[in-house]
Amino acid sequence: MTATALAFDLGGTDLRAAIVTQAGEVRQALTVPTLAREGVDAVLDQMTSLAKTLMAGTDGTIAGVGLGAPGPLDPLAGIMVAPPTLSGWHDVAVVKRLSARLGLPVFLDNDANVAALGEWRHGAGRGFETVLFVTVSTGIGGGVVSNGRIFHGRRGLAVEIGHMTISGFGPTCLCGNVGCFEALASGTALGHRGADAALRPGGEKIAAAQSAIGRPGARAVVEAARVDDPVALALIAKEAEWLGIGLTNLLHIFSPDIVVFGGGLSNAFDLLIGGIRSVVATRAMSAYRDVVIVRAGLGTNAGLVGAAGLVFTPSSSATREDRHQT
User: Fold this and answer.
1) Which among 123, 212, 268, 311 counts the fewest CB atoms within 10 Å?
2) pTM of the model
């Protein structure tokens, strides 16, 4: 019988859940909008409901639950510390609480970490020793897998790349600082710039895309850019510039073999990659310029596949034993 895990990819916009096999096959996936502003219990209720629906439709044994969630969080303690995209989530013992609800062991890690693990094991990062995964969506997150292990740092808080400062100015980030990578280059940031442009002369195509979609956001900018709208293309060029600046910093810090680009904005990878590479070629030291930057092979399933990987091989994703030896 095929071994399976229940996997959750908890984001500030969407909550995704699926049954995933040990081979990385995603089955019976469900997605709902995250009740991100309604507190801890509301989101746990959503997760419990999705779990019951999925588990009722499988005839196999569920080995456990893998949860990829926004940081900062402590995977060893099973605590979500203070994710800025989820209201009221401060020092929440989510592993204990979710395990009590579902009656299964729960393994927690940063959403970008588990996506990095999924891409390293089953996606675009297969065959590479050190993989840097960057997810650009509601926010920006990152994960590094090297020699088969996620790099966690102290308390599992490492690679919180969305909150590195890449500018001395800009909008205030949800973390309270100015100039954060996330505040300047996330899909949310691009969506805000698009909404502003839609209100000005020349922004008619972005406004039309917003109306067709039903709300402002990065997707409206991307759709307008795909029909060669000059305003949208200028916004995409600026987005690529910010992403290139951030990625250049990360290349210098981690020196990965490959950068895997995921998250909702990866749907615009073809529009962004030329500008990103141009910035890297200009700003990165020569030894770092040849690092390959590719779109995530698993697409939006990277987080689910990686979360399941926490269940099947927890020692490769969190060095629990090593971190007890002080």
Assistant:
1) 212
2) 0.84
